[in-house]
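pasting for the record
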Amino acid sequence: MFDFEIYSPEDKIILPEVEEYNVQLSLKRDDLIHPFISGNKWRKLKYNLIKARQENKTHLVTFGGVWSNHLLATACAAARFGFKSTAFVRGEDIPSDILFFCRMFGMQLIFTRREDYLDKRGLFVTHFGPDAAAYFINEGGSGPEAAEGCSEIISELKETYDHIFVAAGTGTTAAGLINGIIKFANTPQVHVVPVLKGADFLESQIKELLIIDHPFQFHSNYHFGGYAKTQPELIEFVKRFTSSTGIIIEPVYTGKMLYAVEDLVAQGEIKPGSKVLAIHTGGLFGILGMKEKFKF
C-alpha cells in the first residue's frame, strides 16, 4: 500500500570505553530510513497510515511541541502519500527549524495553550469532530499501531544479540521491540532507558502494549533532569561519540540511551563477551533547538 524501502543496517561501533570491557556494540541505524520520516517515526506511522487509508481517512491530525520530530515526520509522510495534515502545537509560535519544514510539507499548525493541550481527544473532537476524513494520531505516534510497526525491527536483524537498548519517551518503541522478540522467538534482554524524569509510569504503559507479559530492564536514572534536559557530561558524551564514530546522535533520546550503555558496561551490568545492539531512533533535527548547549 505504501512504497517505502527500509534501509537500517546494523553498524558495529568502535568505542574504546566499551571495547575495553570486551563488549561488542552495534547500532541499528534507523536514522538512515529517511531524512525526514526518520527512525522510529516511520515505524510508528506505518500502520497508522495503513489504517487511515483503509478507513478512507484523508486528513492526519496529530500533536507535538515546536521541536517535535514526530510532527516533521507526519508532515512529510502526509505530503508523500497524499494526505492532508494538521498539528496541534503545544505553546506559542516561536522560531523553529522543524516547524519551518512542517509548513514546507503543507502541514497546518494550530498553536494551543498548554492547559488545553492536555486534552488531546477533546481538541480533536472540538476542531475536527464533524470531519469524517480526519484521523487522530496521538502525540509521538504512540499506540498499538505504532508498537506493531516497531516490532518489525526484530525481524530485520541480521545478527544475534544478548542485549538490546532503546530510549523511551512514550514507551511505544520499547513495547514494539519486546513484542517483536515474542513474535519472532528472539532471545535478547531488552533494556529501556526513559528520557523523562519520574518516568516509572512508563513501565505500566509498556506492559499495556505487550501481546503477552515479558520481562525487560528499566533504567530510570539517565534522564539528566527530565525530557529535553541536559547536563555537561551528557553534552560531552554526545560530542565525543559523534566525533569518534561519524554518526550524529542527539541528547534527547539516543544520546541518553548510549550514555546508559557505556555506563552500565563500566559498572559490570553488561558482562564481558556480550553483544549489545542499541537502537538509533533518528529524530536528529531536534538538536537544532539545542545548539547553544554545545560549546566548541
